[in-house]
Amino acid sequence: MPRPRSATSVVELTDPHRWRRGQGWLMTRAGLPDDEVAARGAYRVTTAARTVVDVARAWPEVHAVAAADAALLRGLVTREELQRVLDRQWCVPGVPRAVRAVGLADGRAESWLETYGRLTFAALGLPPFLPQVELRVGGRLVAVVDGWYPDAALAVEFDGRVKYRRPAFGRSPEEELWKEKRNEDLLRSLGVRFVRITVADLDRRRPELEAQVRRSLAMPGPASRDFSETPREVGRYRDGRAGDDGWLARADDLVGAG
Question: What is the per-residue DSSP string for the chain?
Fold first, then answer.
């Protein structure tokens, strides 16, 4: 799950009977119900639901929501599992922050930047967009936009450089840019408009971003539409892969085995 860059590299351990501190690790004394512990090879780790709630009690809100979004998207947790952990921790310090973070999680954001964007739009008082919407032309999937305003036919895209530095599906950066340009040109010709947003827009350029989005929303989309729009369900990858259990495939599960 995504972590804030400010997060330390200290390994955090939990034990119901004692606390300890050592070089590079910290053991906290806390209760761990059996159903909040999972085995991963030779290791016993907290479940994804317990981990999400634990970090949400301590991390800044945007990072806590991004972690919850990622866990929901990947199928690591359900909302019911998160709520069960929250109910047990009703008197634990920081749990109100965790309750708020879980409540703000959506489960469709495919990156930290999309989560940050959704929370920023809400903070600016902008209408909520539909996350992850498929746009098809003649039955062909042309694009999956990060956000969508149906009435205005306005697509919102949150652009991070990693998408172009390390494109998916084996494409080169040049191929990724060319494919994106061709698809966007087609959709624009059918009346779809785009707002492309970077981290800088969500930080120091918020007033300009808000004005741009409000101007775009003030103009209605085309009355006749030669494209279809279908919101994606919660927890679905763009490439159709199933979720995973969050465990690194490259980890040596025999380490520490007796």
Answer: ----TT---PEEEEESS--EEETTEEEEE----GGGEEEETTEEEE-HHHHHHHHHTTS-HHHHHHHHHHHHHTTS--HHHHHHHHHHTTTSTTHHHHHHHHHH--S---SHHHHHHHHHHHHTTPPPPEEEEEEEETTEEEEEEEEEETTTTEEEEE--THHHHS-STT--HHHHHHHHHHHHHHHHHTT-EEEEE-HHHHTTTHHHHHHHHHHHHTS---SS-SSEEEEPPTT--TT------S--TTS-TTTT--
At 109-147, the pLDDT tens digits run 988 999 999 999 999 999 999 999 999 999 999 999 999
178 or 121: which leads in pLDDT: 121
* Cut 0.90: pTM above it: no
